[in-house]
Amino acid sequence: MKVAAVLGVDIGTSSSKGVLVDTDGRVVRSATRSHEVSRPRPGWVEMDADVWWREFVALSRELLAPGDVDVVAVGVSGMGPCVLLTDAANTPLRPAILYGVDTRSTEQIARLTERFGAEEILRRCGSALSSQAAGAKVAWVADNEPELFARARRLFMPSSWLAWKLTDHYVLDQHSASQCTPLYDTEGQDWYALWATEIAPDLVLPPLRWPGEVAGTVTSRAAAEAGLPAGVPVITGTIDAWSEAISVGAQGVNDLMLMYGTTMFLVHTVTARLTNPSLWGTVGALPGTRNLAGGLATSGAITAWLRELFGSPDYPELLRLAEASGPGAKGLLMLPYFAGERTPILDPRARGFVAGLTVSHTRGDLYRAALEATALGVRHNIETIEASGGDIRRVVAVGGGTQGGLWTQIVSDVTGRAQVIPSQTIGASYGAAFLAARTGWPVSIEAWNPVKEIRQPRAELAADYDELYELYRELYTSSKRVAHALAARQDRLMAAGPPAASDTPRTEGVAP
């Protein structure tokens, strides 16, 4: 007899993940497809939407191939907020501009902030304009690609693109909309027509629903492509970090979710609307909830970069070397601003630094410094959240970076916070599956995903990490001018293009 199961698919920055889960929360199968983003210029991060649907189809067909399950609902989620603009026929006009890791909209942020007023934007939208704001990226397209923008009629994100491809319904969830600053009013929980009309007069913004609400049912066309049964419900879905929070039950008041992925997200659920210009005040993923959130622009992206730089040793080996390095990485200190930084410094011109290097330092020391850098960034965000009125009483970890234990232990040691590690840390695809299951069954995430362990901070390391944290904060301040100057040089070099062949230095006879 076939098992009733829900399909959850998440489109992430470096991979797409799919999971089949039975209605009791047990994972039947999972699958992954890796991909790369495009970085055509410093600060630009893009992706073709065709990849999102192609990988959904591949994951769906792989997971359903054994023929032993009946899919009864589909859940979707994806990185965000992203800006995918299409014409009236829903044909993408350009690659999607990704979330806060794409920092191209600096001029639009400044102009819109002056136009509408920083205080009024924060009051109405819950967040200041920053590289995370999807509305500023819409304005960038309008300013820099006017002929293309004149044809733009619809705005999608990865989750809403999948929902449309599956159901033919054009919708977006409330949470994703709340990251479209300044197009959305967090008090009224609807598009703010006055500003939206000024920024994008010809865009037909999507109707809004909650992430767990049904967007529609699988069409016969989508069923044939993806191997799904026609007519099953598809939820509206949401941004991956918020789906991750749902996957581990971290949407209760005073919870903080830490998402260990290519980037690091922090989502704190609050009782009342809180704002801070250095953070993101958003609508929650569940009706009636609000969040104060933050994110590092790079975390797992740095460890992946180091792995490639080191000649691709496996992650368990790098973790072993990092553990052997010991707390403090033998005197190294890294700033993790390799793609600028989102919260709380909101500085797209920030750059990565490694301080304290000597010829005696090893791969393990550098890898340890990268893990500690992200932990120090998490601490900076936690302190900013609590200074804004947040009350963090429980921290829940999720994502691929929880594997192996060292990274989560370092974060607990640096922040002085215990972390709940759930049984399933698959992440957003599991959260999407859970929301899909709720369309037909009275399921609870506590039953689906009970606590596996609790990572406790080691008190004996507190003083050393307090000192390192002070140096971390000082290093950004003291290196900021240099970082910005180097970012400007990078822009000039990219604008000039690669050197001509005749200008390329000859390397014959040079020892390796």
Automatic annotation (TrEMBL):
Ranges of residues in domain Carbohydrate kinase FGGY N-terminal: 6-244
Enzyme Commission number(s) from the entry: 2.7.1.-
Bilayer-spanning residue ranges: none
Superkingdom as given in the UniProt entry: Bacteria
Protein's name according to its UniProt entry: FGGY-family carbohydrate kinase
Keywords: Carbohydrate metabolism, Kinase, Transferase, Xylose metabolism
Domain Carbohydrate kinase FGGY C-terminal: 257-438
Pfam families: FGGY_C, FGGY_N
Keyword Hydrolase found: no
Sample GO molecular function, one term: kinase activity
Protein family: Belongs to the FGGY kinase family.
InterPro entries noted in UniProt: ATPase_NBD, Carb_kinase_FGGY, Carb_kinase_FGGY_CS, FGGY_C, FGGY_Carb_Kinase, FGGY_N
